[in-house]
Amino acid sequence: MKLPRKKAAVVLDVVNELEREQVLDAGTAARIRANVVPLSFDWRRLARYAFVTALICAIIAVCSLLADELILNFLAQLFRAPPIIKSLGLAVVAGWIFSLGLRRRKRHPGKTYSNEMIFFAGILGIAGSIAWLGKAIDTGSGHYPPLFLLGALIYGALGLLLDSRLIWVFALLSLGSWFGAETGYMSGWGAYYLGMAYPLRFVLFGLALTLSTLLMKDRPRLREFQRPSLVMGLLYLFISLWILSIWGNYQGYEDWHRASHGELFHWSLYFTAAALGCIYLGLKHDDGLLRGFGLTFFFLNLYTRFFEYFWDHVHKGILFLLLALSFGLIGSRAESIWQMNRLKARL
Q1: What average pLDDT does the segment 101-107 reach?
Q2: Which has the least CB within 10 A, 17, 121, 134, 318?
Q3: What number is the average pLDDT over the span 187-206?
């Protein structure tokens, strides 16, 4: 059994303690110790971080290339085919990439991250195909949000078909993009839709997505996508609440600048209530994901309010000294909890 060094140390400590208490006989304890092999380096974690970094760099690279007018002109000259042909061509290429990734996953099921990177190339192909489809059917109305909805449906179907959480996450990103763009189009691209600015709209969207994960638990086909959907729903919800706690539901800079701290304070209360509710549910159901989200955004709210109320009124040296003390206290408390958990594991 190959384990990271820290986990291997915990297992060996438990085995030693059970042997001392005569719960395990010497032979059994020796066999367990012989089968525990500490890993000198966590290559899986490195692979995950490397592929995530590669994914981020690839997204930045594509966005940078598409934003470059010279490259766009070059691509336009290189591909002089009608937009519909380009769309179909990219769709075929994306289909080939997905089939390649599926065959590779069957041969190498353990290489999760590299398999998902192949799927990511197919995701980009689908995005390009939908973009060219939009150019092909463009009537000049400016109503492009349905293209995001089409992308969400395609990615959702592919995520289910290929059992890929990465593709499913892009389906939820496309769905969020459609929601924001569609409500923007319906409001004439103004700041308000039904009296709600963009952050408030996405609070409702994130809440709806988060609650929808409760229905996924009882459906075997959707159960494996429940956690990534929960993560995306909570991200939409808490990031939107954080922006609301800073900006409020105001139309523009002038309205926000005239607003007092008291007029924004109730948004901070909503943000705090959501974070505390998430912590409570995480503790009640022993869910580390909910606890982590709740604690992260609870402290983000506290530190945001700290800067909001004291940045202009406290000397910067004292301000950062207080921050240093607060982080020191958090670190000390976290270290104490870690030591306590380690002691419990030994017992």
Answers
A1: 86
A2: 318
A3: 83
Least confident of 147-151, 313-317, 333-337: 313-317
Residue 231 within a domain: no
Q: Is residue 46 part of a domain?
A: no
The pLDDT assigned to 338 comes to: 60
SS3 for the chain, per residue? CEEEHHHHHHHHHHHHHHHHCCCCCHHHHHHHHHHCEEECCCHHHHHHHHHHHHHHHHHHHHHHHHHCHHHHHHHHHHCCCCHHHHHHHHHHHHHHHHHHHHHHHHHCCCCHHHHHHHHHHHHHHHHHHHHHHHHHCCCCCCCCHHHHHHHHHHHHHHHHHHCCHHHHHHHHHHHHHHHHHHHHHHCCCCCCECCECHHHHHHHHHHHHHHHHHHHCCCHHHHCCHHHHHHHHHHHHHHHHHHHHHHCCCCCHHHHHHCCHHHHHHHHHHHHHHHHHHHHHHHHCCCHHHHHHHHHHHHHHHHHHHHHHHCCCCCHHHHHHHHHHHHHHHHHHHHHHHHHHHHHHHC
Q: Is residue 297 part of a domain?
A: no
The answer to the question of residue 120 being in a domain is yes
Question: Residue 302: its pLDDT value, please?
Answer: 79
Q: Long-range pairs for 20-27 at CB < 8 Å and ≥24 separation?
A: none
- The percent of residues in the chain predicted with pLDDT above 90, rounded, is 15
Question: And the tokens for 128?
Answer: 């390009």
pLDDT in tens, 247-267: 777 665 555 555 565 667 788
Categorize the per-residue pLDDT at 239 as very low, low, confident or very high, splitting at 50, 70 and 90: very high
Give this prediction's pTM.
Answer: 0.71
Cα→Cα distances 33→4, 10, 36, 346, Å: 14, 12, 5, 15
For residue 107, give its domain range. 81-190
Q: How many CB atoms lie within 10 A of CB 304?
A: 16
